[in-house]
Amino acid sequence: FQLFVDTFDDATVQILMAAAVVSLAIGIYDDPATGYIEGVAILTAVFIVAIVTAINDYEKERQFESLSEENDNVDALVIRDGVSQQISVRDIVVGDLVCIEAGDQIPCDGVLLSCDGLELDESALTGEPIDIDKDLTHDPFVLSGCTTNAGAGTFVATAVGKDSQWGVIKSHLEKEQDQTPLQEKLDDMAAMIGYVGMAAALATFIAMMFIKLVVQPAYLEDVSVFNFALDAFIIGVTIVVVAVPEGLPLAVTISLAYSTKKMLSDQNLIRHLAACETMGNATNICSDKTGTLTENRMTVVKGVFANKRHDDTADPTVPADISSKALDVILQGIATCSTARIVPAEIAHKDDDPDGLIHDTRPVLIGNKTEAALLALAVSPFGNEDDYSARRAAAQFGKSGGSRLFPFSSLRKRMSVIVNEPADSSDAPAPTPTRRRLRSNGNKGVPTTGDGKMRWTLYHKGAAESVLQNCTTFLDSDGSTKKLTAAKRAEIEATIKEFATSA
What is the pLDDT at residue 244? Predict the structure, then answer.
């Protein structure tokens, strides 16, 4: 109803209604039998225009709302019944365990259960640009609308949707859709035509009154000055109404909203109507490849593992051609130096089809796609279908004395993790170029070896050329450690360059 009322704010419509009321009053006064027809016809036309405009505005707002909902619809990683799932933020409920890492936006309010170097950008709520360090003791609370700048963590959802902090703020904000450049130009053109139309209407009214009062032709002798002035006024108003293309901006708006909706049905989200105008003039499109033009799903197809080159890792039937000792070192690094997860298809897609049918039988890779590709390699026959979840559970991340994760840093060009591995030193795998061992006297809450000393292993994952600079030894296929000679370093550098060239 409010949209219907707003249509009468147009100056042209107001002039037309004023003319209709005057015409109706004069018509009934002159000819009570049929004099009302002209005025009623004008009023009827005005109401028809108002109804059509209101309906179009309503449809346009509905399309904008659907686009806004699609724009706000992002996926979040949660844990339900001990199983990791990637769901829409709209489906998060109080009590869900939500996992976040660097780059993620906090989807709801919650309390931290575990975290590793977690830093949040709360400037959207407080206006302060300084990152806030979160921990379980002093500041375990996370608020929706903030962004994770570093670290990782898991929290339990305590408020979602409109009840969350960001939902409360958003409910008080009224977002209006800005006009596109084309719409602004059309409005300016319509206003200019309106001014010209009003000038023509005024000139017509003056000319007709000049003929009546000054020229005084014989065919106007029986027409009173008042009635003639009224007819001249109605003609002037008609000129204004005809001259102003008030429906043109509205037609363009509806057309753009419709095209945006159609593109959305083709899985192309247009956040701004102006993008439709821009795309109409585009001759070349520059786009990110991963996740935009491709499936955003990676697979390890070749690599060098423990000084042994494998060019067929994508073959699910080929196991790793290295010793179990060396393979265990690699699998431990892949499992712990990562935050990605693999969810079976029957769990990830169980709600996609009401009949329970699973169209994509491949496991769903959640998190960083490179890390997920390595995990997929680990759980394949190449890695003897390794259980990465058990390795992470044994590492005791986020617990007192447990392992510690250092997220990827563009400055360090690597991601690192310190893992405590309580085992006898004689059974421990040898150190590798990306695996360093630290020892110290035992402390409370930290697992130790049989000799009373705790053993820590530092794993790295990152830019190969950067990690290689810090290496002095390398892991051989039998699990032993060998010195990294200049010739071997040059061989590895050549392999890195070969892989980078063929990427």
Answer: 63
One-letter amino acid identity for 487?
Answer: A
**Cα gap 376→382, rounded to integer Å:** 10
For residue 382, the model assigns a pLDDT of 87
Distance CA 430, CA 205 (A): 101
Structure tokens at 371: 């890390």
152 vs 254, residue with greater confidence: 152
pLDDT at 38 over 90: no
123 by Cβ neighbours in 10 Å (0-12 / 13-18 / 19+) ranks as: middle
Distances (CA, A) of 373 to 260, 300, 313, 345: 35, 6, 11, 16
Catalogue the active-site residues: 288
Bridge partners of 460, per DSSP, are 416
pLDDT tens across 211-224, in order?
Answer: 888 888 888 888 88
3-state secondary structure of 413: coil
Burial 455-490 (b: 16+ CB within 10 A, else e): bbbbbbbbebeebbeeeebbbbbebbbeeeeeeeee
Q: Which of 99, 97, 89, 102 is nearest to 148 (CA)?
A: 102
Above pLDDT 90, what percent of the chain?
13
Task: Return the closest-CA partner of residue 44 out of 5, 17, 7.
Answer: 17
44 and 38 Cβ atoms separated by less than 8 Å: no
Beta carbons within 8 Å of 453's beta carbon, 6+ residues apart: 439, 440, 441, 442
Q: How many other CB atoms sit within 10 Å of the CB of residue 431? A: 17
The CA-atom distances, in angstroms, between 234 and each of 24, 128, 193 are: 12, 61, 19
Does pLDDT of 193 surpass 50? yes
Report the C-alpha dihedral over residues 194, 197, 202, 203, rounded to 10 degrees: 150
421 Cβ neighbours under 8 A, 6+ residues apart: 332, 428, 455, 456, 457
- The residues that bridge with 308 in the sheet, in sequence order, are 305
Enclosing H/E stretch for 310: strand 308-310
Residue entry with tokens 């050329």: 465
Residue type, position 314, single letter: A
Rounded Cα–Cα distance for residues 294 and 118 (Å): 31
More confident residue, 190 or 433: 190
**What is the reported pTM?**
0.55
Residue 347 has pLDDT above 60, yes or no: no
